[in-house]
Structures are given as C-alpha cells and as structure tokens.
Write a structure and sequence with these properties.
Blueprint lengths: L57 H8 L6 E6 H14 L14 H6 L15 E2 L14 E2 L7 E2 L5 E2 L11 H4 L3 H6 L11 E3 L2 E3 L32 H24 L5 H29 L2 H4 L19 H5 L12 E4 L2 E4 L8 H16 L1 E3 L7 H4 L15 H11 L5 H7 L14 H7 L8 H5 L12 H16 L16 H8 L3 H8 L8 E3 L12 E3 L14
Antiparallel strand pairs: 1-10, 2-3, 4-5, 6-7, 8-9, 11-12
Subcellular location: Secreted
Protein name: Peroxidase
Keywords: Glycoprotein, Heme, Iron, Metal-binding, Secreted, Signal
C-alpha cells in the first residue's frame, strides 16, 4: 500500500493501512450467527424445520403470506426505493453458480423428488411450486430455476458466500470495482466518463455484450446501458440515477477544468470521482438513512457532524445484511409508474432502457411525486409474479419474495426467532406475529421455522423510519461500520486523502435535489424540486426553484 495515495483503489484494498485487505472486493460475507444448513458443512441448504418437517416452498410462503396489496407509505416517495437500490449496487453483489443444464424439468415436478444437486453441493436448488398456485400451474412453470450462490469455503470447511464488489460506499456502481472496468468507462480526455449523446442529451454508454438476460431492446434506437455495475439495466429508475451521476461527474470535470487548465486527465477524473463519492455518502447518510431508520440514524452516528475514523473496524458486509435485511426495499416497489401521463405496470418496466432514453424527466418526476409502498408483508404482483418477465412471455417472471427466502436457505440463515433472540428482542409465537399471524400458522409447522426475510419484513416500523426493529438493528450496525471504518470517508480530517474542513462544509451543503436539478436538464428539464427529494411535496417540503439550492464553490477544491 502507498500511504501517500490521495485516491481510493478500485478494488477496495489499502483503505485500511493496518489491514490492507479489509473491504477488498471478493471478501467473504461476515457471519453474525453461525449458518444453519441441513448438514454441517453447507453442501445441503436449510431444508427442514425444528420438528423435522420439510420447510414450505418459498413460493407458497410468498403467495400465502405476502399477498398483493396496495399499502402506500405516507411520508416517503419512490425515490427512497430507488436510492435504496442504487446504494445496494454500490456495496453488495452476490455472484451465483452456473448450472451446466437447466435446473428445472417437468419430470422433476412430476416425481416430487429433490434435484440431486441439492444434497451434493451442486449449483441447482430450484423452487417447486404447488399445483394450486395462482399463476404457475402447469408442469413447465411449476419449477422455478434457482442456482446457489458461489461458495467460499472457510478454514473449517464450511460453505460461505462472498461479495463480488467492495462494501465501501465508493461509487463502484458508477466507476467499477476493477481498474480494467473503470478504464473501459472513461474517455481518457479531460477526466470524463464515456457517454452516448442523443438530441443533445448525454446518456450512459452502450454495452455491446448485453443479452436479453439483462436488457430488452424493444424499439429502434434502444440500446443496453453499461456502467460500473452489471445490474444497471434492471429497472428504469435505477438507470435514471446512473445517468444523473454520469452527468454529474462530467459536469464537475468541466468546472474543474475551467479553473485548473493544467490538470491532467487522470487528476481531473480522480478529483471528480472523489467529489461524486463524497456527495453520494452525504446523500446516503444525511438524507436517505433517516427515511429508513428514523431516529435510530442519529443513535448510530450516521448523520453529518459525527466522525472519528476507527482502523479496527472490518467493514465486510454481514451475510444477513446482504441476504435479508437490506432487501427490505423490494417491499417498497409500487405496482406501476405514471410516465408521460401513461400508467405503466411494474412488470412492463424491468430491463427496458427506453423509459430513460425517451422520458428521463418524466421518469424522475414520477419517482419524486409518487409515494412508495410501505415496507411490510404485502408485495405487488409486479414483484411476485412478473419481475423480469420477458416481453410477450407470460409466466416467465420471477417472484422476488420466493427468491429472497430461497437465498436465505441457500446461505443457511437461521430462522427469524433466532435473530430476535440474538438481538435481545422478544421472540414470537404465531399469535404475536405483528402481521399475518393466521397466514404464517397456515404454512409453517412451527413459529421457529419462519424464514428471517419473511418474518422481519412484517414488523411495524421503528419511530420515524420504514423498517421494523430487527432490521433497524442489522442495518444500523452495518452502516455504522461502513462509515467509521472508511479512511476515505468525506468527513475524515487530517489524512493525506482528506478534504479540508472548509471543503467538507461545501459538500455538506449539497442536497440530492441539487444533483437532480444539475443533471435532468435541457429545454424540457426539471426546473423545480422539493427541498427533500425523498419525501413528497407538502407545506413543509415545498417545490423549490433549482437556482435556490446551494452549489459547490468549485474554486475551493484543489490538489
């Protein structure tokens, strides 16, 4: 490691000079509780409950417990859901194994036996659907493909899983987590990132290697986006945020170049990257986190003005954070978006770049003006029946609740009550489940079998927040570590990589609303945004002229 380096590495290494591998891409997820596999080493995922009975099909749990419902949140808009996904793709990606043949066959459904991979550590762990399902009713759809996460065997021979990217909040979804990927996204001129310009507006560059597995091109001129994270095309709102920060980076480059004409491409790129990361950190912790954790955000020291770097902190994500707790955002997704006056169902939005290319302003306004769903046990059908459904291909969609439950069993996450006990919270009986008591009793043999993801999402929210008590503890602990264990955190003063205290104050002025104003531009651009972009317009959160938001005094930033 070079202790004099002003800039982060792309792979997360050397952030911690005492422990250079802390936070490096490819790190094994940290365990809070020991895994609970069917066998000791994890070759076989969690399959049975405390009585020895088979656990219910994840799809059955989804349909019986997490039925469709329109439970709109009161005080938070869809931008909260969208930032949650954008931030998720900065800190975690769990790679999966590749099966040599399809995991699902009609014979597998007909026979009712386990796929042989399930007990031998192979890739296939398909989800079997009951014959009375509301949608998947025939032999060709009653088995849903699912492959296990890539294994990382620990020193005791127990199957673990790993994070393919860095856990740091370092803009890796924009810039990439390897030098090679980062370089492929650059123009190598004036520090800028590559763009495709259409009608005078800059968009993300094209990914020539994209397939129908990641992006649907439905009209002439459509193309699949390329960014620092491969999931950029998953949802139009996500692609919109990527587009905003691509433009924001290039705008900062222009402003720096105008003042520091002698700076090289490399310096301009790194200084703009450094500022963009700082702005993302500030928005994530000082604006977004309060919407999720409420008053607990302050308790964990997540708000601006509370910083002291701690080199003893290992920022590795916990398995439970990545596999369950931070997937709470899937419950926030609404069943539709209104774009250009047209109501578009969520199932018709996935992996379609046309909504960004045609309607960035209208898409952004929808995220700002439409409220998200509450984080609760109810999910929209767009998420449980039609996620990533292929155009013209009914019954090809996925069920995010079933996938999340199956992923938890794949990783050996202990059931819900064991997590409550660990954190000192009251354990549940069927009668004390906060939502859906009768429904849980109808599918699980014992309350002690309830899968963590299913149980915790149904808790009533903490004061001022969106998630329940258990998830707030898991999220608070993790986001605290990601802040105070980061030597490059924008508030950390006195290091060779640090901003000055004056520069930190400049960064603290920037609201997400200002970023939106600066990047959704043009003749038909956004002219007004509410003060807090994560809450709906109200008498206390009024629409504000873009010119009124404070900006960076770029002259205060130098090398």
């Amino acid at each position: 490691c070079d202790p004099t380096s002003r800039y982060r590495s792309f792979d997360g290494s050397c952030n911690n000079l005492r422990h250079p591998t802390f936070g490096v891409a490819g790190s094994t997820f940290r365990r809070i509780l020991a895994p609970k596999y069917e066998n000791g080493d994890g070759r076989t995922p969690r399959l049975t409950g405390v009585t020895g009975a088979k656990l219910p099909s994840p799809r059955l749990v989804s349909v019986a417990v997490h039925d469709p419902g329109n439970h709109t949140a009161v005080n938070v808009n869809l931008m909260v859901m969208q930032w949650a996904q954008f931030l998720d793709h900065d800190v975690t990606r769990t790679p999966t194994t590749v099966a040599s043949a399809p995991c699902c066959t009609a014979e597998l459904v007909r026979s009712g036996v386990l796929h042989p991979d399930v007990t031998t550590g192979g890739p296939c762990f398909p989800i079997i659907v009951g014959s009375n399902d509301r949608l998947f009713t025939d032999l060709t759809t009653r088995c849903r493909d699912f492959t296990r996460s890539d294994p990382a065997v620990d020193d005791n021979g127990i199957r673990q899983q790993y994070n393919a990217i860095t856990p740091w909040i370092d803009g890796s979804q924009i810039y990439g987590h390897t030098e090679e990927l980062a370089r492929s996204l650059r123009t190598l001129v004036n520090g800028k990132l590559r763009v495709v310009t259409i009608n005078g507006e800059d968009f993300l560059p094209a990914d020539e290697a994209a397939t129908d597995e990641t992006c649907f091109k439905l009209q002439p001129g459509d193309y699949c986006f390329k960014a620092g994270d491969v999931r950029v095309n998953a949802y139009p709102g996500l692609s919109a945020l990527h587009t905003m920060f691509l433009r924001y980076h290039n705008k900062i480059c222009d402003r720096l170049k105008a003042i520091h004409g002698d700076w090289s491409d490399e310096i301009l790129y790194q200084e703009a990257r450094r500022l963009v990361i700082a702005v993302i950190q500030r928005i994530s912790y000082d604006e977004f986190m309060v919407q999720i954790l409420g008053q607990a955000a302050s308790k964990y020291g997540l708000l601006f003005g509370n910083y002291s770097y701690n080199s003893s902190i290992d920022p590795a994500l916990s398995n439970v954070f990545s596999t369950a707790a931070y997937r709470f955002g899937h419950s926030l997704v609404s069943d539709s978006l209104t774009i250009n006056g047209q109501v578009v169902e969520t199932g018709d939005l996935f992996m379609r770049p046309k909504f960004v290319l045609n309607s960035l302003k209208n898409l952004t306004e929808a995220l700002l003006t439409e409220n998200c769903q509450r984080a609760d046990r109810w999910y929209t059908k767009g998420m449980t029946d039609r996620m990533f459904e292929k155009p013209g291909g009914p019954k090809t969609g996925q069920d995010i609740v079933a996938l999340n439950i199956q992923r938890g069993r794949d990783h050996g996450l202990p059931p819900y009550n064991e997590w409550l006990a660990y954190f000192g919270l009251p354990i549940k009986t069927f009668d004390t489940m906060e939502q859906g008591a009768i429904r849980y009793r109808g599918v699980y043999s014992s309350v002690d079998d309830i899968d963590l993801y299913s149980g915790a999402i149904g808790e009533f929210p903490v004061n001022g927040g969106s998630v329940g008590g258990l998830y707030s503890l898991i999220l608070g602990d993790q986001f605290r570590d990601l802040k105070f264990g980061d030597r490059f955190w924008f508030e950390n003063l006195g290091d060779v990589s640090s901003f000055t205290s004056d520069q930190v104050k400049q960064i603290a002025r920037i609201k997400f609303s200002k970023v939106i104003c600066d990047t959704v531009t043009g003749a038909d651009g956004i002219k007004k945004v509410q003060l807090n972009a994560f809450r709906p317009v109200s008498s206390t959160n009024v629409l504000t002229d873009c010119a009124a938001f404070p900006d960076l005094d770029i002259e205060r930033f130098w090398v």
